[in-house]
Amino acid sequence: QVQLAESGGGLVQAGGSLSLSCAYSGSLFRFHTMGWWSQAPGKQREFVATITGGGSTNYADSVKGRFTISRDNAKNTVYLQMNSLKAEDTAVYYCALGSTPTYWGQGTQVTVSS
Prior knowledge:
By secondary structure, the protein is mainly β. Helices cover 0% and strands 52% of the residues.
């Protein structure tokens, strides 16, 4: 059974930074594309970023230049470094397995105060 566990969410001022982590439990982590998605209250879950097993990245236009996704295959962990945070970034952030997600973590709350 694949499990994903996010951590690192919290409250931060606009313009500040947060780092999220996602620990993967399962097999063949290095072959999987991993991603981050966000969901604000009353909104659909939205794509944030993905990273392939080889390290190629893709970002939503809204976070380009501000967020960085990375991974450490030796630690089975994917990260999201969030800089220059805006109030509109406030959401629950979910870690996901797959370019089209097949597994999700439980989410971690990110709140950006303006």
